[in-house]
Amino acid sequence: MTGDDSRNGKEVADAQTADDEAASGDSVLTLEAVRQSFGDVSVLEGVSLDVRAESVTCLLGPNGSGKSTLLSIAAGLRTPDEGTVTGEIDAARDVGYLPQRPAFRPHFTVAETIGFYGSLVPTPIDEAATLERVGLAAVADRRVEHLSGGMVRLLGLAQATVGSPPVVVLDEPASGLDPQIRHRIADVIADLAADGAAVLMATHDLDAAERIADQVRILDDGEFVAGGSPSEIQSETAAESLGGAIDALIDREDAIGVRAGTGDRR
Ligand SMILES: Nc1ncnc2c1ncn2[C@@H]1O[C@H](COP(=O)(O)OP(=O)(O)OP(=O)(O)O)[C@@H](O)[C@H]1O
């Protein structure tokens, strides 16, 4: 972990990997020197990341900094232009994934939806316990098109954890939701990690990151510019909050150009 701008991306990644080893469970998924471009827009410029059991790793960074792209690569949904994704698991099969905008087949109830996803995994699942864990047991018979936005996200979280995958990848699991539901979702995520899962999530919810993240990675301009526990990042940037640390680390003017796809690297 570092706020030292003189270190390059590889040095930052190596230092962060050492920090991770001290901080959490076994490595289950490793991304090494991952690069991804879309046309002439370079989105990831050699990103390395270790995803560990029993821990929550939060990806933070401006809109358009490449978080979703990185998550889709970690989840085995996209093969990077360069770099490797390795682990004890098969990323395409053993990774639960919650997309940014989950959508479910209309007319199915909540229970039928989870039952459907349960039928896709090798071992039978406890549907009631799966819904209980995310707090949706009371609406098990409600049709998915009648759920609130927060409930849809909780159902997405339940779907991502069906079959207890060793890695759970969550793309902004609580964006646009009220503080109470955001808090509940963060609690569910922390419980998943406590039960052994390696959770990798992108979020703009800095309160949640501060509360539940074991490790944070800040992505900007295609590279990690900092990583470590929330308190380590704060103390290295002399910031009073994670938001303050991000402000110290990221050049907002440049980030606006990057977001618009007009930055030098894009
Ligand atoms: N399939 C694609 N084709 C072309 N460009 C893409 C594609 N997917 C993503 N991009 C571009 O890659 C960049 C990174 O997008 P990405 O969704 O990974 O960012 P993000 O950090 O998740 O953003 P946000 O916080 O807004 O969700 C953006 O400039 C986006 O327009």
Describe this structure in words.
The protein is α/β, with parallel strands linked by helices and 266 residues long. The relative contact order is 0.19. It has helices spanning 9-23, 67-74, 91-94, 110-118, 127-134, 149-161, 179-194, 206-212, 230-237, 242-249, 252-259; strands spanning 27-38, 41-52, 55-60, 82-87, 95-98, 167-171, 198-202, 215-220, 223-228. The protein folds into 2 domains: 25-94 and 167-252, P-loop containing nucleotide triphosphate hydrolases (Rossmann fold, 3-Layer(aba) Sandwich); 102-164, no CATH class. The strands form 2 sheets. It has a 6-stranded mixed sheet, sandwiched between helices. The chain is globular. α6 runs parallel beside α7 and α9 crosses α10 (242-249). Adenosine-5'-triphosphate is lined by residues 38, 41, 43, 61, 63-69, 202, 261. GO terms for molecular function: ATP binding; ATP hydrolysis activity. Residues 1-24 are annotated as: Disordered. This is ABC transporter related. Residues 29-246 form the ABC transporter domain. InterPro entries: AAA+_ATPase, ABC_transporter-like_ATP-bd, ABC_Transporter_VariousFunc, P-loop_NTPase.
